[in-house]
Amino acid sequence: MSQTPWWRGAVIYQIYPRSMMDSNGDGIGDLPGIIQKLDYIASLGVDAIWISPFFKSPMKDFGYDISDYRSIDPIFGSLDDFDRLIKRAHSLGIKVIIDQVLSHTSDQHAWFQESRTSKDNPKADWYVWADPREDGTPPNNWLSIFGGCAWEWEPRRGQYYLHNFLKSQPDLNFHCAEVRKEILDEVEFWLKRGVDGLRLDAINFCFHDQQLRNNPHKPVHERKGRGFKEDNPYAFQYHIYDNTRPENIAFLQSLRGLMDRYPGSVTLGEISAEDSLKTMAEYTTGQSRLHMAYSFELLVDKMSASYIRQTVETLEAGLKEGWPCWSIGNHDVVRVMSRWGGKKPDDKLARMLNAMLLSLRGSVCSYQGEELGLTEADIQQDQLQDPYGIAFWPMFKGRDGCRTPMPWEADSAHCGFSTAATWLPIPDDHRERAIELQEKAPDSVLNHYRQFMQWRKQQPTLRLGSIHFIDAPDDVLMFVREYEGERMLAVFNLSSASRTVALANINIKSLLDGHGFDTTAMEEESLIVEGFGVFFASVNMSVEDASVENVLLAQSP
């Protein structure tokens, strides 16, 4: 039997480098700061870290606007620091995944600086350029995610260039063979330095429609999808022609060919498409595309058992041999404790949500601070850093609230993160969840996270098994995981009130312990799950429940 790849069922801890740890007293986190905290990260029991961009950048979008793919921005350190980080992480058994922003660069990148000068320079075709219409307006109706037109006029060329994000983030032209080759060379630079994987930002945005056809308009009742609120005109269109183009598949295959030359390396694609679950399945099918992908489906404001079930089941139905990766929080969305927990989220909710995420089929991205139960910070308008929030305030306050520095100490001036004023303020209520305090409290969210992670490592059924959902009362998520003949029942109460769950067709072999949750009260054919409670048991499915049995067998890997 072939060995299971390390990334299947792995837990990947996302680090936002500006906010992990500041080593030099400038108020901004850096690579040496991450190195200082690798022992802490290892104590969580995670398999890998994903580090958001640390490359040279004017920081208009905080690193997602790269001006040199092969250089470290001085605020984060140096290549020597990165090499030390790789070495230390590997010595602790932690894999290192780095962000790669391939669809666009900064307008300060040397490629764009040359491309914009004329229509006949060596890099003239490296970005997406288009002539104006006869009346001087942009070539079509495409819009930027950050608001307004996706085209910016360049007087040197007398043309518009495309930017799906900020106007300072021009889109590369992946229809140009030279661009595709150069991008693969940029990726290989980091593979040669020993990285174990790539998180691919906006990977479905690489190609555009060469005919520059207009996107069709979207009816009002459909404008709340994909995480874009109705005050953002981006939600007014079906984005058919400006991203997720069929040509992207061939590029993904080229990228996979490169990765396969570095055994054990992995790709994790970020997908935001009109049908992200369908695109995830398409991009991960077979052995020649992405290893795994994630989307924004569980990063939305909704939380209901039926929504989570529908999302996972929809992906499972289309995924075939592909592998999913799930997350409920990252650097782009309101922290999950505030999104799903209301005004006064508590520790029981944090423990339940972490366990629920870590029990889904697939790999997991866990965002820094989720192990502490951090809530969204309330950032005032004059404190905003995020250009997205500055543009849409107050309807949308941006992404700064989930990016505040980690609270290491409760009583230090800057929570032990820095000796200087921090780039974003640390809210007072984060002090109450400081790591030093939670370390000392056996029942803290942090220590429970560690306990559950250690228990999960001993459960191949959770890490590698198939999944089948079972009907349950409202607010209860209930499924069976199965692997090599072992079946585990998992029950999660997503409400603060207790719920009674029928077990008429489920034969429980034994209750499972060691995961850190209190045993749920059981009656003859039901169990009572307390508010935000969790229940695990080893089960035999009863003969009467043939449909469950058949689905389990059909989905076994």
Task: Write structural notes for this entry.
With 557 residues, this protein is of the alpha/beta class. Among the domains are: 11-105 and 177-378, Alpha-Beta Barrel (TIM Barrel), CATH 3.20.20; 464-555, Immunoglobulin-like. Helix content is 25%, strand content 18%. It is built from 16 helices and 21 strands. The chain has helices spanning 31-36, 38-43, 79-91, 110-115, 177-192, 248-259, 276-284, 305-319, 336-339, 347-357, 387-392, 428-431, 435-440, 445-457, 460-464, 546-555, and strands at 11-15, 48-51, 55-56, 68-72, 95-101, 129-130, 151-154, 159-162, 197-201, 266-271, 292-295, 325-326, 363-367, 466-469, 476-483, 486-493, 499-502, 506-511, 521-522, 526-529, 534-541. It has an eight-stranded parallel sheet, covered by helices on one side. It has a five-stranded antiparallel sheet with strand order 14-15-16-21-18, with helices on both faces. A three-stranded antiparallel sheet has the order 6-8-7, with no helix packed on it. Helix 5 packs parallel to helix 6 (248-259). The model is unreliable at 546-557 (pLDDT under 50).
Helical proportion?
Answer: 25-40%
Strand content: 15-25%
- How many strands? 21
* Largest sheet: number of strands, sense, barrel closure: 8 strands, parallel
| Intertermini distance | 13 Å
CATH class of one domain: Alpha Beta
> What is the alpha-carbon Rg in Å?
24 Å
Q: Report the total helices.
A: 16
What would CATH call the homologous superfamily of one domain?
Glycosidases
Strand order of the largest sheet: 11-10-9-5-2-1-13-12
Q: Oligomeric status of the shown chains? A: single chain
CATH architecture of one domain: Alpha-Beta Barrel
Mean pLDDT: 93
CATH domain fold name of one domain: TIM Barrel
Which segments are poorly predicted (pLDDT under 50) over 5 or more consecutive residues? 546-557
Which structural class do the helices and strands define?
alpha/beta
Silhouette: globular
